[in-house]
Design brief:
Layout: E1 7-11, H1 16-27, E2 31-36, E3 55-59, E4 74-77, H2 84-89, H3 91-112, E5 115-121, H4 148-168, E6 172-177, E7 180-181, H5 192-202, E8 206-209, E9 215-217, E10 219-220, H6 221-232, E11 240-242, E12 247-249, H7 250-261, E13 267-270, H8 285-291, H9 299-325
Parallel strand pairs: 1-2, 1-4, 2-3, 4-5, 5-6, 6-11, 7-10, 8-13
Antiparallel strand pairs: 9-12
Helix pairs in contact: 1-6, 3-4, 5-7, 7-9
Amino acid sequence: MTRDCDRALITGGSGFLGSHLCEQLLDAGTSVVALDNFATSTPHNVGPLLDRHDFALVQHDVTEPFPGLGSFDTVFHLASAASPPDYLRLPIETLRAGAIGTANALELAERCGARFVLASTSEVYGDPGVHPQPEDYWGHVNPVGPRSVYDEAKRYAEALTTAYRREHGTNTGIARIFNTYGPRMRADDGRMVPTFIEQALSGAPLTVAGTGEQTRSLCYVEDTVRGLRALADSACPGPVNIGNPHELSVRGLAEEIRAAVGGESPIEYIDGAVDDPQRRCPDISRARRALGWEPVVGRAEGLRRTIDWFAGRTATAQALLEPRQA
């Protein structure tokens, strides 16, 4: 089923993923309102969109009652700290975004009769005992560990979204997003792709947590956003995995990035994170079947685009410093 989506609200719209979603929707002819409190993002991510008549950026905390924003065809709820340093720094705020923020977004979607898309996460599977992870796997999560503030916020958000669907008939879809990377990631957000790229570009050691044998699967941001849009344009309630099914080790990723940058940075091993999942890879059979979606951007191409973006940002920063140093 394909719907015309004329107006969309994106909570967390100036974040890494949200800003790319804003762009794709605008390019497809959808009017967009981005809602963000900039706790872990920057308005610069959507700076090029601010002059467009069909785009608005509203600074607002999703845990507070929403201002009058009008009616929407689709509500995408992305607002949340998403990287370990951020949600460990903002534990209560992360839980509130998953609970109160989700409730506020659902209430708006219900009032508008809008399609509601929840950006959940592969973290709901925890350190999985099933591999690859299908949507009917219930997970293996430590509810009181340091990562639980993010895991349980998203698990609660899924439960609340499902309750609204069952109780009120709200038109909802749940996406479980796996590791996503691309331009506009923060260099200091603690995730492995930007960390390795920044280290390789500067010639610093690439710091691999634990043994480096733990695995991840990386989906380029353009593909992840297409998946969210496909879910929005469907009647699928989810949950549905949105990710790349090609698995690689963390150490292997560090070596790929070092080779792509062309440097000789050594690999340095540091202590692993508490409750760090040892394997992470999605089963995307449901996404292929229900959404007609699968990733198309290969890792080599996606990393090249991401490295080029980081390199360009570094070059710009150095150019701005040069007059001061003269």
